[in-house]
Amino acid sequence: MGLRLLLGSGRGNRVRFVLMTVGGSLGVCCLAIVLAIPGILAAQDGRIVGRQSVSPTAQSNGVIADGYPLTLDRTDPYGSTPLTRVFTARGTRSVEPPPGLPSFPRVGEVFVSPQLHELRRHNPALAQLVPGEEVGLIGAEGLARPDELVAYVGMSRAELSGGSPVERFGERYGPPPTLDPTTLGILRFALSAVVLLPLAVFLSVCARLSAADRARRLAALRLLGLSKKGTQRVNAAETVAAAALGAILGLGEYWAVNQLASRVGLPGFTWYPADGALTFQTLVVCLVGCPALAWYVGRASAGKAAANPLAVRRGAVEKPPSKWVFLPLIAGLGVITGYCVAGATGHAPTSTTVSSLLMPLAIILAGVGLALSLPSLSRFLAQRMARSTRSLSLGLAMRRNEAEPGGAIRVATGLVLLVFAASLAQGVVIELNGVAKSVSAVQTYEISYGELSGPQRRAVEAVPGLRAHVVTLRSDSADTGAAPSPEAVVATCGQLREAVPWVKGCVDGRPMRLWDATQPEGNAKAGGSVAFRLKVGQHSRDLKLTVPEQTMRYRDHEDIRVLPIGAFLIPPAALPSNARPESATLTLVSGPSEKTVRTVLDGIGGIAPMAGVTTPGLIVDSFQRVTIVRTLLAVGMILGLIIGVAAYLVAATDRAVERRPQVTALALLGARARTLRAVQVVLPLAVGLVLAVVVGKMAESSYLVTGGGAVFWDGGGVPLLLACALGVLVVAAVGALPLVGRRIDPELIRRD
Length: 752
What we know:
By secondary structure, the protein is an alpha+beta fold. The protein contains 21 helices and 22 strands. It is elongated.
């Protein structure tokens, strides 16, 4: 009966069914994207584990390594990107090669990933870092991502004497996953708030298109003798049919999006098309879960017409919203306020178990409470303004809102929840930035002085983002007594002041002992002689220096030391112009921000790609993790924006068409079209957006309090949220244009 009513109730009903199907397909596509993200990450981690070498098992007489191939792994930063080099040496035993390789490379051969192949073409200097003749590319089964930098370099067993024997590849306990469980849990929580919450509203909106007309049609069936449950099933059958077709269409849309996006890639995150293939769990959720939700919504939306058919007649007065709808909002705000007060008073909770349960529950209650409280708030505001205004046009529009406040929840909920979720996503980004951000005031980069030529060294020292640079000389012999290997720092006073927080008593051009004010006085004995090995042209000679008596005090950074303890300062002029220290380190100093560190590492990689760069306190892999999380959150925000705007446009257009007779009557009584548009659509949305910004900022702050970070309050994010809310109002104003047309059709009100 439901399908017969669908196909035989006119063109308008069939158009509505098509809109429901298309809208449902969009929601299913977004849902499939969210569900595919953990599978993509798991597939990438699985390939990384699959290429880890496994050593032979130990026997009673020790490890049997004779004849097994040897491997040695090295991961170095190439700019701000990890470069993995696996040095291999063939053996006499037959062992399966690493995944993605047809065989072990011979001596002088190298297999590289496609991205590294392109880099070698444009930067021939990489041949020194990845030596050998390129004989092939690594297959997809041996790479985590298409843009990964990996190379297998063939060497002789004599050259690889420090390598480990390998029996097979596929270590069970490989390196840590791309995203650890905690970070993945945070990402899932954020995506659920940003995407799944608006998605549930969107699917509900699609399932309730033309609700008033369908309610009267169902009431007629009920009055003709159809049972209450039968009436609900008739309505549910129509929504389930639309949801089922929409689910199939949405999965097809996801397949097309996956094929296109995987080949184009996202900023900082790429994957193979097979990684994003639809899984059994995704198919079950989309093909079973979405129609099940539609069945529930269809039965629930027909409950009023089935229970009391006369309550949905055209002249019936809508029942005022219950005051109990404020209970979820009050409960959620109670928990959120408690955490905010605890953070403000310096009593942040330490129990992560309780917070991990309470915080998501409070956020869910607050989000649901926002949606449920909109009709009551809209009705209350309409009553007050209708009583106080002297404008006939505004008064009529407000009375319309007071008589039918339930329409606000359909129109405004999607965008209100989007702004609420955007604030939460901002809190997640702040927390992840706090985890990845260096706790030190600076970041240092150490490069062996001998790896850089003169022009390279001068270019590296001029990389944008650097604050200072110093050179540290090391000596293997000394007669200072207290310090067996004193070190010398080659720098000017200006460079020292830029490198460390505090310097006192420095005189340019004069050697001085360095004394950190937070440490005991230097170990180098004044007057002692120290020799440093220098290379002048093709010859080496010793530079003998005397430890000065004059002392210069300074204070180094707490977490990262720029200057060695017990060293002494010598001016750059003390070294011969054409001399190069054989044992020295160039230390570069920059700010700790991620953008600055990326700029510096990329600059060094472009100037000296073969130079080994050590970054104390920083793991280059963490850059990749943070970039992936940010990219996925950005994808979630874009999906949430698409869903929220689509939900609003669908609901606003449907409500405008559905309420056109009543709006036409108001226009004939003197209400202006502009006023009706503003009051009936924009005003309820503005009330909801104000609540969303306030509650969202409180939820964000409470989330940061429970996260254990140092940042609790983020005032800098308020302008962004207000800008988002203003943009939403602009979209609402545009979407309200079809509400009242310039031409009034009397046929619209003839039946009333």
